[in-house]
Every structure is written in C-alpha cells, then in structure tokens.
Amino acid sequence: MELEHRSHEHPLFVYEAKKGDANLSDLCQGCEKAILGSAYKCKEQQCSFSLHKKCAELPEDFKHPLHPQHALYLFINQPYPSGCICNVCREIRNKFIYHCAYCQFDCCASCASEEERKIEHKSHKHPLDLMQRPALFHCDGCGTEGKDSSYLCTDCSFWIHRNCASLPSNVKRVDHNHPLTLSYSLSHEYSKSEVKCNICAGKVRSPYWVYRCSKCKYFAHVKCATSKTEPARK
Fold this sequence. Notes:
Wheat Germ Agglutinin (Isolectin 2), domain 1, 4-stranded antiparallel β-sheet, 4 helices
C-alpha cells in the first residue's frame, strides 16, 4: 500500500516495525518518537523519512479539551522559526504541530492522538487517563513531584508522569557495558537492603521504578538512566 503525504516529496509504503528489528535511529517525522508498530516509510533507499500510521492519518483540524474555543490546524512545517512548546505536554516540539493562530495555542502530534488519551500500562492493573490539565502530583513511577502532563488511574489514584509512561523497556548507557532493563519495583532480594543509584549515588527507594542490569548489581533511577548525567565519583 502506497501513500502520498503532503509532508514528504516521495511516495511512502506501509510496514510493521517490531521491537526486535526496530532501528532506534528511525524517528517518526510527525511525533518525533521511535518507530514501532504500523508505519509508513519512504520508498527511496537513500531516504530515511518515516511516519507512524496514526501520525500520517491525523486530521487536518480538531478541537482539544484544553482549547475548546477554536479549532487547531495541523502544520507540517512549524509556524515558528525554532520549534515550539506544546501547551499540553510542555515538551519542545520541532515537527508536526496543531496551532491556533488566534491564541498561539499549540498541541503536538502525540497529544492530538486519541490513542494516547487512555492507555493500558504494564506497571498497573487499571487503565490510565491522560489528565487534561497540568496538576501538582507525586509520580508513582519515578518518585518525584511534578506539574507536567500526566496519566491518572481514576480507580485507585495511581499517578505517573506522561514521560514515565513512555519510558523504554531497555536503555544502553555509554558508561556501562550491559543494557539496563526497566523494573517497576525492586526485587524481593533487595527490598530490605540499601540500594544506591550507580549514577547519582542516591538511594533507590521502593516501590519506585528502577533500571537495573541483569548481569551485575547495577541500579539507576529512571531519570538518571535516561539522562546524559555522568556517574558520581566515588
């Protein structure tokens, strides 16, 4: 199946990107996230342009609950000279953006996606709803307070940052030889001992999430593991 999309000069073909064969350098040119699942890719061998299927099929305009007074229109090219901050997730975006010319309200492709407004997350037994307004809360994933975009369980008040909800299952750091795997709690064998983050040297607290190495006793806070912070000197 081929697609002619106004964001790209070449025809795109549909394909299925799986975790085992996904190229981490393949980023969606709509939402700027890694390509996984149904997607479109440029037919030209020398061109790496890719789009999630859901991003390729975004409507030309829609109304967001945070900005009901005007429709937002899809801009393939940014209406600003150097990117913008999404008014929903507060992240800097450089690709597709929904924009209101009257109010300068902006919504990125991820926030516009219906799929992201209610999610099933393997860290929790109930569905999570995307909060429509920023609120001060304590994240049950990383253990820090925040006012960022978030997901909330309306059944039991489980609450996590939106960024935590999209953490990768595995990360590779240049300062460690093995990949680190995301765990949603410390295993029982470590629950009664003091575990330190190998990056910042701070305490890893249960029941918060942690990245750990399955081959050695290496632990890291989720924020430390996904940052470019260098390990603290001993």
